[in-house]
């Protein structure tokens, strides 16, 4: 699995703008079928949303979408 979260963090650290990156995480569904939704926000604007069975996978997808939105 590619590590989009690391790529995104590295990009913002290089830009000295890591303070503009934030995450919103929440789960839905019964405890035996939890779905995680993670939003990647840049300066308060949602740039990626991931939905998956694990929080880590949802965060990776949100980071991937944010990188695409940034032109990577």
Automatic annotation (TrEMBL):
Matches recorded under PROSITE patterns: DS_RBD
Domain DRBM, first and last residues per copy: 3-72
A Pfam family reported for this protein in Swiss-Prot or TrEMBL: dsrm
InterPro entries reported in the protein's UniProt record: dsRBD_dom (IPR014720)
Molecular function GO terms recorded: RNA binding
Alphabetical UniProt keywords: RNA-binding
The keyword Electron transport is assigned to this record: no
Superkingdom assignment: Eukaryota
Protein name: DRBM domain-containing protein
Gene source species: Mycena maculata
């Amino acid at each position: 699995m590619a590590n989009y979260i690391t790529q995104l963090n590295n990009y913002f650290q290089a830009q000295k703008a890591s303070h503009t990156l934030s995450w919103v995480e929440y789960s839905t569904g019964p405890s035996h079928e939890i779905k995680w939704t993670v939003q990647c926000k840049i300066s308060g604007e949602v740039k990626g949303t991931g939905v998956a069975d694990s929080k880590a996978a949802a965060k990776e997808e949100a980071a991937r979408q944010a990188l695409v939105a940034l032109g990577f």
